[in-house]
Amino acid sequence: MIACLLISGFALYKSYAFAKSANNHIYILANGKALEAFAADRKDNIPVEARDHIRMFHHYFFTLDPDEKVIETNIGKALYLADESARNQYNGLKEKSYYNNLISGNISQEIKVDSIQFHMDQYPYTFRCFAIQKLIRATSTINKLLITQGYLRNVSRSDNNPHGFLIERWETLVNRDTTITR
Description:
The protein has helices spanning 2-23, 42-62, 68-79, 84-95, 98-104; strands at 26-30, 33-37, 108-119, 125-136, 141-154, 165-181. The protein is an alpha+beta fold. It folds into two domains: 2-34, no CATH class; 43-181, VirB8 protein (Nuclear Transport Factor 2, Chain: A, Roll), CATH 3.10.450.230. A four-stranded antiparallel sheet has the order 3-4-5-6, covered by helices on one side. A two-stranded antiparallel ribbon has the order 1-2. A hairpin with a 4-residue loop joins strand 4 and strand 5. InterPro entries: Conjug_transposon_TraK.
């Protein structure tokens, strides 16, 4: 009888420990595969999330097709990720008929971010983004060197801003033609 109680007690203890261990694991089903997810502190992921936030902002701001709806959608997404400095640059380009020229000239614009320098030693965090901007016309393609810089501040996460950063005091340092191909 004592042996039976010991075995039952041991089995209950082990099943409780197993259930507790199972509750600490989360599995994500992606493309038919179960992937285990681990919780991490936000500070561990700040550089990765910040670089992706900066990359996505530049993608939305500079990847444009000659379609007014595409331009409005992409710029709208970009403006959720930055402060009024981005809106001011957008308004300046709009006043110069830059977006109308893209539409009337059937020009597509793409961007490829080469690298992002990100510094966490001070807050708000500073960054500098190096990218190649490509303007594709029917007759030629222009590659431009683009260098921008700004600051990142923490904000609440939302559907429109999943990384929880806001780009502030964003400015373009260099935007010049590098190559033209016909």
